[in-house]
TrEMBL record:
Species this chain originates from: Oceanimonas baumannii
Name of protein: DNA-binding response OmpR family regulator
A GO cellular component entry from the record: protein-DNA complex
Pfam families referenced in this protein's UniProt entry, alphabetically: Response_reg (PF00072), Trans_reg_C (PF00486)
Domain Response regulatory, residue spans: 2-116
Record-level GO BP terms: regulation of DNA-templated transcription
Amino acid sequence: MRILVVEDNPDILVNIVDYLSLKGCVVDALHNGTAAETLLGREEFDLLVLDLGLPGLDGLELCRRLRTGLNPLPVLMLTARDTLDDKLAGFEVGADDYLVKPFALPELWSRIQAVLKRSQHQLVRRLTVGDLSLDLGTLKVSRCGQDISLNPKCLKLLEVLMKHSPGVVSRATLANELWADEPPDSDGLKSHIYLLRSAIDKPFAHPLLHTVHGRGYRLVADDDATDH
């Protein structure tokens, strides 16, 4: 498990890093919010332990930027502020849990395990491709923070494509997923692809749904994919 700890108090930072390392974690440590944002843009982590008061970029703003960018990275926020308003502010920007200083290191470890357990369950219920998101529990679709309305067939089509992304899904597979033993006429799938593309791509700058000639369709966030 790889954890990024961002804490400006050097003593607290060393204690956390040493403790988590003993637990078998790979730990990266930073004391500056701006540096943390840069590293998070380049590297992948399983969890972020984030102090609220940081130089450069504070913890609230860093967490807000992560969630605005649809980054599902679990965030455990640390702070010396223990008022209800402070806690609510952390949760409102997307923190998964909130631990008030001073704290015992075993409690920190317990919170980390609980956050990871919850996030693993939530990740199974949410699919993302680039800035497009589908919540499998609520069937809510959004892109760039904008809600998108889809009919049931298009929802199913989107789910299949997202689960296979960035791979190509054949027309036969998509037709079978949507209609099983009752395949539509030859234009049925094409019509639903058109409707889906109109909803998730046309209002936005970059297309996600791409046609692969002779093979099928795929959802991919890469700009170099060829769209038709």
